[in-house]
Amino acid sequence: MPPTSATPRNKMESRELTLRYGSKVAIHQVSLGIPEHRVTALIGPSGCGKSTFLRSLNRMNDLISGASHEGSVYLDGRSIHDRALDVVDLRRRVGMVFQKSNPFPKSIFENVAYGLRVGGLKDKAKLQARVEKSLRGAALWDEVKDRLDESALGLSGGQQQRLCIARALAVEPEVLLMDEPASALDPIATAKIEELIHELKSTYTIAIVTHNMQQAARVSDQTAFFYMGELVECGPTEQIFTNPREKRTEDYVTGKFG
Ligand SMILES: Nc1ncnc2c1ncn2[C@@H]1O[C@H](COP(=O)(O)OP(=O)(O)OP(=O)(O)O)[C@@H](O)[C@H]1O
């Protein structure tokens, strides 16, 4: 992995991206680069468009009726709205982890194997190897290796969230989008997720929505502050928290509103 000080290329980038739900503008002309092998935190008050922006990066908003966009999003320099692009493959390359862990009512093994089976992988040994690799990648293997056939619903909240991360990793994505992945977890489980995010960035590119200012400061390399659908400011996390350019950013990160 390159040293953190070197400027990496943008793995993803939005240019003047506007997204509407019906006639309501949710994000307006957002241009933002997501650097490779870095963690980008998206912060801002409720309703400012953070999740909408995140979902735009793998076209999850396409699934919401009435949603429409203008502007562009690029993955490795190629438009994700290109007609020739396969959306299923886009979502494999740009995976997502949600606020509420959502394991299937199946065994731990089958939760992780699910995407691989859907993708056509049948070989048992290969499936086992990929499931183990994914669970190790999500820092869950040691806790579940002796109970892979038990229901995923018997895991704790923090374990379920790491299982969902393992499920996302199983299909070998390049980018991981995380929408408040730790907001429902206790401080110990949250710390594990934060540690994991730190480890994952050497392999993946990560964008995370968080309401927790300390969490953004701890886990991210760059922070983007959204306000009322606009990207107010984006910069190195330390600068955004200690020396923001914009008054609105300063007011938000110092807790004056939000
Ligand atoms: N499916 C939807 N249909 C219509 N409007 C929506 C939909 N999802 C979000 N919105 C609206 O778009 C705007 C941006 O919402 P979004 O969820 O992206 O904000 P957010 O910053 O992630 O908020 P929060 O921090 O509360 O999750 C809000 O005004 C919201 O009400």
UniProtKB/TrEMBL annotation:
<dbReference type="InterPro" id="IPR003439">
    <property type="entry name" value="ABC_transporter-like_ATP-bd"/>
</dbReference>
<dbReference type="InterPro" id="IPR027417">
    <property type="entry name" value="P-loop_NTPase"/>
</dbReference>
<dbReference type="Pfam" id="PF00005">
    <property type="entry name" value="ABC_tran"/>
</dbReference>
<dbReference type="GO" id="GO:0016020">
    <property type="term" value="C:membrane"/>
</dbReference>
<dbReference type="GO" id="GO:0005524">
    <property type="term" value="F:ATP binding"/>
</dbReference>
<feature type="domain" description="ABC transporter">
    <location>
        <begin position="12"/>
        <end position="253"/>
    </location>
</feature>
<keyword id="KW-0813">Transport</keyword>
<keyword id="KW-0067">ATP-binding</keyword>
<dbReference type="GO" id="GO:0016887">
    <property type="term" value="F:ATP hydrolysis activity"/>
</dbReference>
<keyword id="KW-0547">Nucleotide-binding</keyword>
<protein>
    <submittedName>
        <fullName>Phosphate ABC transporter ATP-binding protein</fullName>
    </submittedName>
</protein>
<dbReference type="InterPro" id="IPR005670">
    <property type="entry name" value="PstB-like"/>
</dbReference>
<dbReference type="GO" id="GO:0035435">
    <property type="term" value="P:phosphate ion transmembrane transport"/>
</dbReference>
<dbReference type="InterPro" id="IPR017871">
    <property type="entry name" value="ABC_transporter-like_CS"/>
</dbReference>
<dbReference type="GO" id="GO:0005315">
    <property type="term" value="F:phosphate transmembrane transporter activity"/>
</dbReference>
<dbReference type="InterPro" id="IPR003593">
    <property type="entry name" value="AAA+_ATPase"/>
</dbReference>
<keyword id="KW-0592">Phosphate transport</keyword>
